[in-house]
Design goal:
The protein is an alpha/beta fold and about 425 residues long. It is about 25% helix and about 25% strand. It has eleven helices and 19 strands. The protein has helices spanning about 5-15, 35-40, 115-120, 160-170, 190-205, 210-215, 260-270, 310-320, 355-370, 395, 400-405; strands at about 25-30, 50-55, 80-85, 100-105, 130, 145-150, 155-160, 170-175, 180-185, 225-230, 235-240, 250-255, 275-285, 300-310, 325, 330-335, 340-345, 380-385, 410-415. The chain is elongated and about 85 Å long.
Length: about 425
C-alpha cells in the first residue's frame, strides 16, 4: 500500500500512459487517489484480462476528494477475473460475459438480484464467486429462473440480508461446487420479509433438490458429506463439515424462527443418498426464546447431541424416551437410535423434580434397561448432565442409581 499521494499519482499516471499494454490491474489505493484512479479506469485497456479494484481503503486526509464515480469498461478482450470493492461498473458489459472469477463487495454488489443472475447466466466458465456485504434494499426478492453454473467450485456469499441470500440459493444450481460458504443475516425489516424467506427456504431445503445437497457436500453419486456439526440458536443456524478447506461447507442462516428451517434441514439430510453423521447443538438460555427441540427429523442422523437450556433439556429427555416407526420398514425402534453422546446443560436456579431427576431416571430405565418391553437401545459412550449441585438436589440424589444402570452417565457440577 502506497500512501504518498504524489508518488501514487505518478504511478497511476504511468499506468494511464501504458493502459493499452496492461493485462492485469490490481489497485488497492486510498480514497484520496480517486481522481487519478478514475482516469485509469476510463482509459482504453484492450488487453486487460484481470481487474481488481479496492476503493475502500480509508485515509484521514480526505479533504474535498470526490468519490469514485461509476466507470464503464472500454472495448477489448474478455475480462477473466473481476474483483471490485465499493466500485461500480455496469455488469452487463460485453467484456464480462466470460468471467472465470467474480468477487463483488459492498456498493459493487448489484441492488437487483435479477441483474446479478443475468451476469452469472452469461458466465458459464465461472469457477469462483464471492458476494460480500450486500447493502440493504427494499427490493422484493423471489426465486428466479434457475441459473446453472456448471464449473463453479467455490461459492462465498457472506454478510447479505437473509432474503437476498435465500432468493439467490433458490435461483442457482452449482453441481461442481466443493467449497460453499454462505452467511446471511437478519434484515431490520425482517418482520415483513420473514414470510418470503420461509417460502424461499421451502424451495431450497426440500428432498430431491440437488442444490441443497451441493451446499452440504452431498451432491454427486460418489459424494459423502462426512460429519456435519449443526448448531441451532434462537435466531440462526450454523452448519459446518469436517472436510478440508477446498471441500468446506460453512453455512449460517439468520432467521426469526429457526424451528421450521431446522426441521427441513433434518428431512433433507436424512434423504441424501449417503446421509451424514450429525453432531447437533441446541442452545437457548431463556425459555421464551424458542419452542422445544424437535429431534424426529434428525432421528436417523444423530451421532451426538448437545443441549443448553432447561426447557430444551426437558424436551430432549421426553423425546428420547419415545419410540417410533422406522421410515419404510414398519419396524419400531428408539428415536435417535444411533446416538452415542449426550450432553445436557441446565440453568442455575431451575430444578423441577418431575421433569428433571425423575425424567432422567425414567429415560434410563426405559431406553437402556429393558423396562419398556422394547429391546434396549444401543449403549452410548457418554451421557453428561451439567447442573449446579446446590440447585438440583433431587437430580444429584438419583445420580448413583442412574449410574448403576448406565455406567457412562455422569453428573457434573456446573459451578
Amino acid at each position: 500500500m502506497i500512501y504518498n499521494r504524489q508518488y501514487l499519482r505518478k504511478l497511476l499516471n504511468l499506468a494511464i500512459e501504458n493502459s493499452m499494454r496492461i493485462k492485469s490491474l490490481d489497485a488497492r489505493v486510498p480514497v484520496c487517489s480517486n481522481p487519478d484512479l478514475q482516469k485509469l479506469l476510463k482509459a482504453p485497456t484492450p488487453l486487460l484480462e484481470t481487474l481488481r479494484i479496492d476503493a475502500n481503503v480509508f485515509t484521514f486526509d480526505l479533504g474535498d476528494t470526490p468519490r469514485l464515480d461509476e466507470f464503464t469498461l472500454s472495448e477489448g478482450m474478455d475480462i477473466k477475473n473481476l474483483s471490485l470493492v465499493h466500485v461500480i461498473t455496469p455488469l452487463g458489459s460485453p467484456r464480462l460475459s466470460n468471467l472465470m472469477t467474480l468477487a463483488l463487495r459492498g456498493a459493487s454488489v448489484p441492488q437487483s438480484l435479477e441483474l446479478l443472475l443475468d451476469v452469472l447466466s452469461s458466465s458459464q466458465r465461472l469457477e469462483v464467486l464471492h458476494i460480500l456485504e450486500k447493502p440493504q434494499s427494499t427490493e422484493e426478492y423471489r426465486a428466479n429462473a434457475l441459473v446453472v453454473l456448471p464449473h463453479l467450485r467455490e461459492l462465498v456469499f457472506s454478510d447479505v440480508p437473509s432474503i437476498f441470500g435465500a432468493a439467490f440459493l433458490a435461483s442457482v444450481y452449482t453441481p461442481s461446487c466443493l467449497h460453499a460458504e454462505v452467511k446471511d443475516q437478519i434484515h431490520p425489516s425482517i418482520d415483513q420479509a420473514s414470510a418470503a424467506v420461509k417460502v424461499l427456504d421451502a424451495a431450497i431445503w426440500r428432498p430431491g433438490n440437488d442444490q441443497a445437497a451441493v451446499l452440504v457436500g452431498g451432491a454427486g453419486s460418489n459424494a459423502v458429506p462426512g460429519t456435519l456439526s449443526i448448531s441451532i440458536w434462537p435466531n440462526w443456524i450454523e452448519i459446518e463439515n469436517d472436510k478440508s478447506f477446498h471441500e468446506r461447507c460453512e453455512l449460517r442462516f439468520g432467521r426469526t424462527d429457526t424451528s421450521e428451517l431446522a426441521a427441513r434441514l433434518g428431512t433433507v439430510l436424512s434423504q441424501l443418498p449417503s446421509s451424514p453423521a450429525v453432531h447437533l447443538h441446541y442452545t437457548s438460555k431463556y425459555p421464551e426464546e424458542r419452542p422445544p427441540a424437535d429431534l424426529l427429523p434428525w432421528s436417523e442422523l444423530l451421532e451426538s447431541l448437545s443441549v443448553r437450556g432447561s426447557r430444551l433439556c426437558r424436551s430432549v429427555l421426553r423425546q428420547l424416551s419415545q419410540s417410533y416407526v422406522l421410515p419404510g420398514t414398519g419396524r419400531v425402534d428408539w428415536i435417535c437410535r444411533r446416538l452415542s453422546r449426550i450432553k445436557l446443560v441446565y440453568e442455575r436456579y431451575d430444578e423441577d423434580t418431575i421433569l428433571d431427576g425423575e425424567a432422567v431416571l425414567s429415560l434410563v430405565r426405559h431406553r437402556w434397561s429393558g423396562e419398556s418391553g422394547l429391546a434396549e437401545a444401543t449403549r452410548i459412550a457418554s451421557f453428561e448432565i451439567w447442573c449446579w449441585r446446590d440447585h438440583f438436589p433431587n437430580l444429584w440424589s438419583l445420580g448413583d442409581e442412574i449410574t448403576r444402570m448406565l455406567p457412562c452417565f455422569e453428573l457434573i457440577d456446573d459451578d
